């Protein structure tokens, strides 16, 4: 992907964002940050990822003529368009590979939300694909585990677990080189309203019966009895069942609830941002699994340091032009 200067009119024809938009994204998300965030390509790529989310969620939605990009494409576009990043374009494949390896080592925290009978839990389905998981996400720099869990659950479900979270009640699992910690949030009313606060991240939220999340067989641990894709759920179920056995639920089992999962929120027509609550039986069907591969941490450009003086000089030139 080349990065010559483009006019707004040329960009409107081929869908590429105009140079002034890319300059704004680079200045806002990459350059105008604390110095410590510019000390490695891993941190810089996280900033580029924020710029990508903003571009997709705001620029593209407000201007349908703009082209949508995946993260790697957007990274190449921004590196080719931003004067400070251009010197590293030749190494962008290695930089992005290093970043991908780094991301799978960042700790993840979230929550297992149980209803008042401890028979059901909240699962979320990603925007792309059909895998289900407990609401969770990667920790930010210097963020405490429980604070990350509160933030991620709020972003993915719109539910504040602050008052219900016990820092000592959690289950952990290791996926490759990544630690995942899920806090147990028990006794949530089943009529609680859920709706994600972020765009294009969650497509569906539903209460699912724990007995239907059990593996269909020892050989197929990533699928529940109903065929749900549960790669990020199954490893926590044995420990969760042990916790439930040791704790008395605040409400007895209810026979009036449907046997199938209950959908409490679904994105309308593939778009997000709706706060509408949808109640319906959750239908499921088997689909093929695709497990993310952990290629291990890279070490290219690990000792990279940004030339801050050059950055400031470039910014001064840009603003004085």
Helix and strand arrangement:
Layout: H1 8-14, H2 19-31, H3 41-62, H4 71-81, H5 92-103, E1 108-115, E2 120-126, E3 132-133, E4 136-138, H6 145-157, E5 170-175, E6 178-188, E7 202-209, H7 234-245, E8 262-266, E9 280-281, H8 308-320
Parallel strand pairs: 1-6
Antiparallel strand pairs: 1-4, 2-3, 2-7, 5-6, 7-8, 8-9
Helix pairs in contact: 2-3, 3-4, 3-5
CATH topology name of the largest domain: Nucleoside Triphosphate Pyrophosphohydrolase
By DSSP, the count of extended strands is 9
Q: Write down the Rg.
A: 22 Å
Q: Which series of helices and strands comes N to C?
A: HHHHHEEEEHEEEHEEH
Give the N-to-C terminal Cα separation: 26 Å
| Strand composition percent | 15-25%
Quick summary:
The chain has 321 residues and is α+β, with helices and mostly antiparallel strands.
Fold and architecture overview:
The chain is built from eight helices and nine strands. Residues 1-11 and 270-303 have low confidence and may be disordered. The longest helix has 22 residues, at 41-62. The chain folds into two domains: 8-102, Arc Repressor Mutant, subunit A; 106-281, Nucleoside Triphosphate Pyrophosphohydrolase. With 321 residues, it is of the alpha+beta class. The strands form two sheets. Strands 3-2-7-8-9 form a five-stranded antiparallel beta sheet, with no helix packed on it. It is elongated and about 65 Å long. Residues 104-232 form the Nudix hydrolase domain. Pfam families: DCP2, NUDIX. Belongs to the Nudix hydrolase family. DCP2 subfamily. One of its GO terms (molecular function) is manganese ion binding.
